[in-house]
Amino acid sequence: MTELSVMVTDNHWAAVADIETVCATTLQAAATALPKPVTGSVSILLTNNDEIADLNKRMRGKSGPTNVLSFPAHASAQGWAGDIALAWGVVSTEAEAAGLALEAHLRHLLVHGFLHLHGYDHQNDDEAALMEDIERKALSALGVDDPYRDRDNTA
Asked: Per-residue pLDDT tens for 19-68?
């Protein structure tokens, strides 16, 4: 990753101390966890449910807010990996409902979004397993518990 830009449009994100550093260290851990080196600048938008719902509708044709959206840059955009947007309301509600620390959940979603920027997806079981393994590696390096641990232990 060459450069990171963080834009905060919802003041609730102030609940995460030093959020720009959290974003930078998280994306660095995600880049390090990838099997092949990646470069490219990333912008992160930390916003609210209404803005995410608008982006979700305009860009994906889907109604309502979601936790994270990733918009990979076009292949011709030299030096640019893409954009990640996160919704305060969805992210904070999910963290609370799951009994997770807000920062830990944010880090997971940032890693997830970053992987989407670099071509990773979870459309089938094999893709999902690969993506989750990389997420686990990146989050472990940050001291964040495995977000899939409870799901994997219920089988």
From this structure: 999 999 999 999 999 999 898 999 999 999 999 999 999 999 999 999 99
Global pTM?
0.94
4-152 has which CATH code? 3.40.390.30
Secondary structure of the chain in HEC code, one letter for each residue: CCCEEEEECCHHHHHCCCHHHHHHHHHHHHHHHCCCCCCCEEEEEEECHHHHHHHHHHHHCCCCCCCEEEEECCCCCCCEEEEEEEEHHHHHHHHHHHCCCHHHHHHHHHHHHHHHHCCCCCCCHHHHHHHHHHHHHHHHHCCCCCCCHHHHCCC
Q: Where are the domains of the chain?
A: 4-152
